[in-house]
């Protein structure tokens, strides 16, 4: 199973989550790779069986729109039938950005490998464990 973990992080919180997703996937036996949003695009999607996307809430609870959103939009057409997972951190609000992102993904015909993982600010032990489990779910 080949897994891509693709993320954007401004403060390092979502990067820490991505690294834990990667560790969980590798521990579960996947051939897993980590990418920042600027080094991944639609041409990369076909090379992976499963993909995790991580982005923090920005602005009015939206995906980061200079690097992450353009990359994700370029990949959307190739995600149908793929197993994916979503994760990210936030500093305010109630997770609306993740609910909106999940709804957007549901219309693409993807299969969610696990429940999305969100955490406020830096990932605590519970969020770290959830990210590790998310990576393992992608690998199975």
Question: How would you describe this protein?
Answer:
With 140 residues, this protein is of the alpha/beta class. It is 38% helix and 22% strand. The chain is built from 5 helices and 6 strands. It has helices at residues 13-27, 42-45, 68-75, 96-106, 125-139, and strands at 2-7, 31-36, 50-54, 83-90, 111-112, 117-120. Strands 1, 2, 3, 4, 5 and 6 form a 6-stranded parallel sheet that branches. Strand 3, helix 3 and strand 4 (83-90) form a beta-alpha-beta unit. Helix 1 (13-27) crosses helix 5 (125-139). The radius of gyration is 13 Å and the shape is globular. It starts with a strand and ends with a helix. The model has no long low-confidence stretch (mean pLDDT 96).
Helix amount: 25-40%
Find the count of extended strands (DSSP E, 2+ residues). Answer: 6
Could you state the order of secondary-structure elements as H and E?
Answer: EHEHEHEHEEH
End-to-end C-alpha gap: 8 Å
Portion in beta strands = 15-25%
Backbone structural class: alpha/beta
Main beta sheet: 6 strands, parallel
Count the helices. How many? Answer: 5
- The rounded Rg comes to 13 Å
Shape descriptor: globular
Low-confidence stretches: none
Give average pLDDT, whole number.
96
């Amino acid at each position: 199973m080949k897994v891509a973990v693709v993320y954007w992080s401004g403060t390092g919180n979502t990067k820490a989550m991505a690294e834990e997703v990667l560790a969980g996937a590798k521990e579960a036996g996947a051939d897993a790779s980590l990418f920042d949003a600027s080094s991944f695009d639609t041409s990369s999607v076909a090379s992976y069986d499963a993909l995790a996307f991580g982005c923090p809430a920005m602005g009015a609870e939206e995906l980061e729109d200079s690097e992450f959103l353009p990359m994700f939009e370029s990949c959307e057409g190739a995600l149908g039938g793929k197993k994916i997972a979503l994760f990210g951190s936030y500093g305010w609000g109630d997770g609306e950005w993740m609910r909106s992102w999940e709804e957007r993904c549901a219309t693409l015909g993807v299969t969610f490998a696990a429940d999305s993982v969100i955490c406020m600010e830096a990932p605590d032990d519970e969020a770290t464990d959830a990210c590790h489990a998310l990576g393992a779910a992608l690998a199975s």
